[in-house]
Amino acid sequence: MILRTIAITLISCALSGVAGAAAKSGRPNILLIVADDLGYADLGVYGGDVDTPNIDNLASQGILFTQFHTAPLCSPTRAMLLSGNNNHVAGVANQGRTGAAGLAIPGYEASLSDRIVPFPKLLRDSGYHTYIAGKWHLGGKEGQRPRDAGFTRSLAMVQGGASHFDSRGYTPAGATYMADGNIVERPPNKYSTEMFTDTLITFIEADKDSGRPFMAYAAYTSPHWPLQVPDDYLDLYKGRYDDGYDTLRERRFESLKEAGIIPGIKVDKGTKHLAGSQDELITEGLDGLRERLEEYLELGSSVVRVSYCSCRRCQSPVRRSWRRMERCAATARSSSAWNGPAPGRSARWT
Predict the structure, then answer these.
(1) Are 99 and 77 in contact (CB under 8 A)?
(2) Which residues contact residue 63 at a Cβ distance below 8 angstroms, ignoring those fewer than 6 apart?
(3) Is residue 334 assigned to a domain?
(4) Domain C-terminal end among 230, 251, 270
(5) For residues 324 and 321, what is the distance between their CA atoms, to the nearest angstrom?
(6) Is the confidence at residue 344, as pLDDT, over 50?
(7) The predicted structure's pLDDT at residue 294
(8) Residue 269 pLDDT > 50
(9) Is residue 17 part of a domain?
(10) Cβ(175)–Cβ(156) under 8 Å?
(11) Residue 332 in contact with residue 322, Cβ under 8 Å?
């Protein structure tokens, strides 16, 4: 996290040279910073005890979101962030998988769909320079790359994770890096946050005399696994967390309350982030979860995660149990109405 605050400082230095262009046009420069797999409670402004002074300073001068929600996975979240739409509409219902049960289904393209317009494309078309440096994870084929989403300059890692010092990745083939749409070799022995930050600064400085504002997307891969830092940072917090996870969890819960982040907890200014007492909110949340569980249990023991029946007799995007799908497939076993996989084989959804 300290590395990320350094990145903000460096980019802020670069902004000073191009602030005039933004002021002249009357439109602001935009810097979007995304931390990968960061727990929001780790930030100082949210009650954490990791040193994040630059982020805390930025937060003190702006708006602090306390009801911002993400998807459970990386790619769907990024699709929503760049499009302002539900991730199914944006084409990334699941992560890294196209279609469902062997069927090509709208919403499961695993890349940004043609049903949305990414906001970098809108900014580019309105005269902004648009840059990205960091993790992409929204498709690497032609038509799916950052330039297709509106970025005029880019250095992007295509996959979801890799070493922070070289191109080793999930598979023996390693991670793929693209610069302005072309596959390139990753510079070795340079920590990912530093590499992506330096790249954005290079992009910004190259266009600083253009008289046009910019939007820079710093899509850092840190602190996504593997958990790696330069040697100078290895012992930075040595001893701070020796009490273990259980103690840290209790301490973090109290710090979140003190910071006013936990819903229903009063802060010094006398405001509430959400009406209702803490006990009432917890009870309402449990009741809602109980109702959802009961709904699933009513469907039987073999509820499928992705539910879409391609049989023309009942094609509708509703949840169905395996038993229902089996009957549906059996009914259409000898009929052209069945458009899906062979019954009893790959038709079972997982």
Answers:
(1) no
(2) none
(3) yes
(4) 230
(5) 5
(6) no
(7) 66
(8) no
(9) yes
(10) no
(11) no
Q: Which two tokens stand for residue 309?
A: 């029946």
Whether residue 151 contacts residue 145, with contact meaning beta carbons closer than 8 Å, is answered with no
Q: Range of 204's domain?
A: 2-68+117-230
Distance CA 79, CA 87 (A): 6
Euclidean distance between CA atoms 162 and 220, whole angstroms: 12
| Higher pLDDT pick, 70 / 292 | 70
Give SS3 for 23.
helix
Tell the residue number behind the tokens 């709208």, with chain if given: 106
Name the strand (E) or helix (H) holding 219: strand 214-219
pLDDT tens digit sequence for 176-228? 999 999 999 998 889 999 999 999 999 999 999 999 999 999 999 999 999 99
Asked which of 230, 256, 289 is the last residue of a domain, the reply is 230
Burial class (CB in 10 A: 0-12, 13-18, 19+), 322: middle
Give me the residue label for tokens 């930030």: 43
Decide if 176 contacts 140 (C-beta within 8 A).
yes
Active site residue 74: yes
Backbone angles phi, psi at 176, to 5 degrees: -105, 130
Domains contained in the chain, number:
2
Instruction: Indicate which residue of 129, 137, 164, 224 is catalytic.
Output: 137
How far apart are alpha carbons 109 and 100 in whole angstroms?
A: 10
Residue 95 sits at the vertex; the CA angle it makes with 181 and 7, to the nearest 5 degrees, is: 55
